[in-house]
Specification:
Blueprint lengths: L8 H14 L6 H7 L4 H9 L5 H19 L3 H4 L4 H6 L7 E3 L4 H10 L8 E3 L12 H10 L7 E4 L2 H9 L3 E5 L11 E3 L5 H10 L3
Parallel strand pairs: 1-2, 3-4, 4-5
């Protein structure tokens, strides 16, 4: 979702900076790099202290994401990855899923506010799996719910952890250059969904 449907990582960075500063922590470039493709429970203790209890970690994560939603709400349409709506409209007959490390509140918020919900009969958040990306569990669960073999799936990802997850699930992975210019292991790297290389690759692989 983040970095694939919507180029939301700049707002996540902004939200972390504001939230961490409230707790006396200045967010470094290294902390921002750690963020990409990770679930909040993988980040909070690194940012705010290893001493935090599970309940405190959950509370901090929920509060940061509430701030993120507040910041991004007026910008959602402008931040959709170029071409995403047209691309999804063209995928008639395909089974589509969102599989994100984000919490459910963010997943529901983005799908509803961006009016993308009808495209995705399956939507899995990070709390619905035991092991977050880069583990393949979330993508294998998406394939199971869609009723397709993993080898028949194409994953779209913007993060190293997400690419590793898709590859570990034995799926083909297309990389989006919204977050990183290069993602090792992807079958194709594109700027956005308007990139002509995407249609050509899908036609060559027989996906469209």
């Amino acid at each position: 979702m983040d970095g694939v449907l919507i180029d939301s990582n700049p707002v996540h960075r902004e939200a972390w900076e504001v939230y961490n500063r409230r707790h006396g922590v200045e967010t470094t470039a290294a902390m921002h790099r750690l963020m990409y493709g990770k679930r909040n429970d993988q980040l909070i203790r690194s940012y705010l202290g290893e001493h935090l209890s599970d309940d405190e970690v959950f509370g901090h994560g929920a509060a940061k994401e509430a701030l993120f939603r507040q910041l991004i709400r007026p910008r959602i349409d402008a931040m959709l990855v170029p071409g995403i709506r047209e691309f999804l409209n063209g995928l008639t007959g395909f089974r589509l899923a969102v599989a994100t490390n984000a919490e459910r509140a963010n997943l529901d918020f983005i799908l509803n506010e961006a009016r993308l919900r009808p495209f995705f009969p399956v939507a899995i958040d990070g709390d619905q799996v035991t092991r977050p990306k880069p583990d393949p569990e979330i993508y294998l669960e998406a394939a199971r719910r869609l009723g397709v073999e993993p080898a028949a799936c194409v994953v779209f990802e913007d993060s190293t952890a997400g690419v590793q997850s898709g590859l570990a699930a034995r799926m083909r992975v297309v990389g989006l250059a919204t977050t990183h210019d290069h993602l090792p292991g992807v079958s194709l790297m594109i700027r956005n969904f308007e990139d002509p290389a995407l249609g050509a690759w899908l036609r060559r692989t027989g996906e469209c």
